[in-house]
Amino acid sequence: QVLLVESGGGSVQAGGSLRLSCAVSGAKYRNLCMGWFRRPPGKEREGVAAVAVDGSSVYADSVKGRFIISQDSAKNYVYLQMNNLAPEDTAMYYCAAMEACTITGRDLLVARTDYYEYNVWGQGTQVTVSS
User: Fold this and answer.
1) Hey, how many other C-beta atoms are within 10 angstroms of the C-beta on 59?
2) High-pLDDT (> 70) share of the chain, %
3) Among 39, 40, 59, which residue's Cα sits nearest to residue 49?
4) Is 44 helix (H, G, I), strand (E, B) or coil?
5) How far is 125 from 33, CA to CA, in rounded Å?
6) Which pLDDT score is estimated for 29?
7) Which residues have C-beta within 8 Å of that of residue 31, sequence separation ≥ 6?
8) Cross-strand partners of 92
9) What are phi and psi of 105, to 5 degrees?
């Protein structure tokens, strides 16, 4: 069973940086795609960044050039480096995994469709950016 545990959230002033970590366990041979999603206060959940099984990554337009998704070589951790943070980045951030994943590209920023879904989610970590 795949388990995800996020850490690294917190409060920061606009222009600052944070790095979120997602510890991945139970994932051996499960061909995971990994994504970071966020839910701003009072808004819908949105995809932020994701990495496919082949290592290719994709970003939401709102974070492109500011956020970087990465994995360690053993794929035990997924990171989200967030730079030049803005108040509109304030949200609960979630790490998610899609097992037996064959999806690539911007489809990875969609949490669920009739054909695929991220089926494992972490508990979330809060990021608050003040102006």
Assistant:
1) 19
2) 98
3) 59
4) coil
5) 20
6) 62
7) 53, 99, 100, 101
8) 39, 126
9) 75, -160
